[in-house]
Amino acid sequence: MLTEQQGCAVLKRVFQSRGFQVQENVPFKEDDVSFQADGWDPQSRVGYEYMTHQADDFDDLDPREIGRLGEWADAGRLYFFVIDDTNIETVEDLEWAANRFLDEVVRRKGARP
Amino acid sequence: MTREYTARDVVRAAAQQNAQVDQELQRMAAAEKTHQESVTALRGELDAAWRHLSELMVPGLDPAALDGAAHALGLPTIRTDVVANAMNAERAELQAAVARIDADPLFQQRDRKATELRLKLEEHREYIAPLRDAVGALESENGFKELVATGYGTPAYKNGWWNLSYYRHWKRADEIVETEGPRFQATDFAALLRRYREDRANYDSLRKQEADLMAVQKRITDLVNARQQADAALAALPQKHLGLVRARVREHLQPLDETERFKLCPTPDLQLASKRISGVDAKTRYLEGVHQEMVVKPRAAMEQMRAKNLRDMQKLVLPKNQGRRFSDEDYQRRFRDRSQNWNKRWDRYDGTYRQIVVYNDYHRWNPIGDFLWWDYMTDGHLDGNFIPEVNHWHSHHPGWSHHHDIHSHHDDAISAVASDRTAASDFRDAS
User: Fold this and answer.
1) Looking at the complex, does the CB of residue A94 fall below 8 Å from at least one CB of chain B?
2) Do B326 and B27 contact (CB within 8 A), yes or no?
């Protein structure tokens, strides 16, 4: 089982290897959504947020806000990969999922970052 | 010069005495076990004696026997009409149950139905087995139940593509399709799910049908068993009611004292049966009394002696007590050899116990109520005044000599009962 720290390191590596300029632990605020983002590329508007009870993330980012992030991803406004499932057994599983997410982002954006 | 004993002498003597006490306690434990066995055997004997008396009083269900006994005992609940009514009511109930079972179509066609059900069940099980294997294999796949619960592979699935769980479900679903897809002829999870749901529905339906068939099978078995039980109950009905009547007779007689009971026994065989009850009952009381006096009470004293010796053995080895001295008088009083006394007690116990156990001259019981079984059982040779019943009798019969008085007393008693008997009619004849 991966910790948040290990998970964030994996995500940063995958996002960077795909060309995203990830900044870690940056404040994010747009409209009625605000939280401390685990990883965020303000240029490409692509990032990730690792939800763990341990880090009180479920308090920082509530279900309404998660819903808003989903709406914006569907609308192509910005793309946050939300790690809503903390039962991640292996690094490979997380790498595979992050790459599939970024494939979809690239497909929707129509271009690489 | 008087001899003195050291603490060490006392410790050694206490240890020796405790070795003897331990042997004695072992012997008492063995006697206790034997006594309990004797009491159990006597309870069985008493029960048999009561059974014998009630059988003699009510030999059968014929009106003469029932009405005669009812009249003589003043026990209307065993009158012929009462017993016949109860028996007829029960017979009618059982016959109605038999008729209901016989009229049941399932019972009427039970053999054909049983064969049909067996074949159908075999057929069902042939279909069920492969479905159970397939459905079971899929359901035991890790994560499959979660995928079904989230609606993965259907429009009901709500996880967004930006969530990690969406990808985890995707990956797991692909793995399951790879493992189980060929068995269900499915190449994607949606198809696998459709086939699974069809198979699961078929499996559930077949299991339900199997349960229904088994329920019918059980109903047939229940009907057959109920029919057999009703037949057996009908066949045993007279014996059962005879048993109930005899139990009522016993309940009626049991609270009476032995003289009152004897008055209700007009024939020699009934009288002897009643005397046997009286004698076996007395035996049980006496054995208990002898055992209490000669085993239970001395055992308490032995245990005290043993405990005191143990205490002293611990105390006297302490350095502060090493210099203590004990007089010859104290030493002898405490540690003199008691084995002779103990053996005498055992001889008395064994002799008395045996004499009571083997006694079976129950016919000697004296019907006027002024009689002591103890004197008969021990032939007046053994002192039983430690038993309250014996002591009470002797204190009310000062100067009584068993050997002298017994024969004349017995003759008087027989005459007394003969005159009493005019009050209690011979119920055999009364019918």
Assistant:
1) yes
2) no
* A93 contacts B162? CB cut-off 8 A: no
Which chain B positions have a beta carbon within 8 Å of A74's beta carbon?
160
* CA–CA gap between residue A13 and residue B236 (Å, rounded): 90
A4-109, what's its fold?
Endonuclease; Chain A (3.40.960)
Chain B residues with CB-CB distance to A81 below 8 A = 162, 164
Q: Residues B277-305: what's their mean pLDDT?
A: 95
The domain limits of chain B are: 4-57+257-430, 102-246
Cβ B222 vs Cβ B214: under 8 Å: no
Q: Are strands A46-50 and A23-30 parallel, antiparallel or unpaired?
A: unpaired
In a mutational test of the A interface, the residue from B157, B163, B172 whose CB has the highest number of chain A CBs within 10 Å is: B163
Nearest by CB: B168 against A82, A97, A104:
A97
Which residue on chain A is closest to B172 by alpha carbon? Answer: A93
Query: What is the phi-psi region of residue A19: left when phi exceeds 0, alpha when psi lies from -120 to 50, beta otherwise?
Result: left
Q: How far is A26 from chain B (nearest CA, A)?
A: 20
Mean pLDDT by 10 residues, chain A (113 residues): 88 96 95 94 95 61 91 96 82 94 93 61
pLDDT tens digits, one per residue of B10-43: 999 999 999 999 999 999 999 999 999 999 999 9
Judge contact between A70 and A61, C-beta under 8 A: no
Residues of chain B above pLDDT 90, percent: 83
**A74 touching chain B per CB within 8 A:** yes
Domain residue ranges in chain A: 4-109
Contact A82 B164 (CB under 8 A): yes
Type of residue found at B390: V
Q: What is the ipTM of this complex?
A: 0.92
pLDDT digits 0-9 by tens, B87-144: 999 999 999 999 999 999 999 999 999 999 999 999 999 999 999 999 999 999 999 9
